Amino acid sequence: MKKIVIIGAGAMGSAFAVPCADNSNQVFLVGSFLEDKVIEEINNLNNFHPILKSQLPKNIKVLKFSEFNDEVKDNIDLLVIGVSSKGIDWIGDEISKFYNDKTDILLLTKGLTIIENKFETLAEKLDNILKERGIIDAKISAVAGPCLANGLVNRINSSVVLVNQNINVVKKIGSIISTNYYSIEYSDDVIGVEVCAATKNIYSILIGASEGLSSKLLDSETKKKYFLNTAASLVYKAVAEMKSLTRKLNGKEESAYGLAGLGDLYVSSAGGRNSKMGYYLGQGHLFKEAKEKFMKDVTVEGADLAYEIGPKVLNEFEEKEFPLLFSVIKCICNNQKLEINW
């Protein structure tokens, strides 16, 4: 039995606790400082999760962050980070107060950021935060792949990839969290996996818009019936761009065809917040209008990423090499209608 602490009681953090608990580990699900209300609801409902609408195993201990005391922090084997990308600075500061090098860190959060005018993965960002606080050799791995939280919490057969430059580190993690329904692959391509896992959120917006983008001439009913030709074309072009982007940022091209690339793009485009936003953009809405009117309190990861990396992409990349990426970034950052040049 290993001691696993998951910080972040949102959909994915909570769902990830299920395979951890099913492996007979000691599992603590700790809400961030913003999630006290959710934690109270879960405890009041005997581990029924109000967001996932599903029952969590009874052996998962659910705590508020204020209850995350020294006893829980002691001798952690695996520390899982499930906060949003905006919470990486906060969680890095908190981890630095108790982390020791016997603990593996697994990052569920996906994203890219700009540090000193360079593209960096969130794993690199977290590592930098910890180094600034005197922790030099933090063992940080990441997970990516086509695994929606609602499927995982209901134990639907799913596959993910764990990534670390040291394969042995992620193989050790895999041995304590894999199940007959949660299968794991391993990669040492931290940059490629993280780039694909992050940018698939941007491309999912575009594929979600494929119905609206399928024709400028036809009526909405016809487009609704026959837009899959357009969707398939955009999937192909999106994966090709992910491959080029991965190469440009010094990752391995093949990661674009793996679970973090094509696999994750498929499931995110089939359903999710990014593709939902894409649908509204494809119908002709401007991003700010659609966000306020339809998704006001919903995090759209692809939009957050566009704001984060968009200015650097528009300034330094060639549009002819990444036309789809440019179209989404311009749509979001400049609040203009989503258009692509067929």
Overall strand count: 12
Give the terminus-to-terminus CA distance.
55 Å
Query: How would you sum up the global shape?
Result: globular
Mean pLDDT: 96
* Low-confidence residue ranges: none
**CA gyration radius, whole angstroms:** 20 Å
User: SSE order in H/E notation?
Assistant: EHEHEEEHEHEEEHEHEHEHHHHHHHHH
Strand order of the largest sheet: 5-2-1-6-7-10-11-12
* Tally of contiguous helical segments: 16
Q: Given the helix and strand composition, which structural class is it?
A: alpha/beta
Question: Beta-strand level of the residues, as a percent range?
Answer: 15-25%
Helix content: 40-55%
Major sheet, described briefly?
8 strands, mixed
Describe the protein.
The chain has 342 residues and is of the alpha/beta class. Helix content is 49%, strand content 15%. The strands form three sheets. The protein has an eight-stranded mixed sheet, sandwiched between helices. It has a two-stranded antiparallel sheet with strand order 3-4. Helix 8 crosses helix 15 (301-316) and helix 8 crosses helix 16. The longest helix has 21 residues, at 228-248. It starts with a strand and ends in a 9-residue tail after the last helix.
Quick structural gist:
This protein has 16 helices and twelve strands. Strand 8 and strand 9 form a beta hairpin. It is globular.
Keywords, please?
342 residues; alpha/beta; eight-stranded mixed beta sheet; two-stranded antiparallel sheet; 16 helices; 49% helix
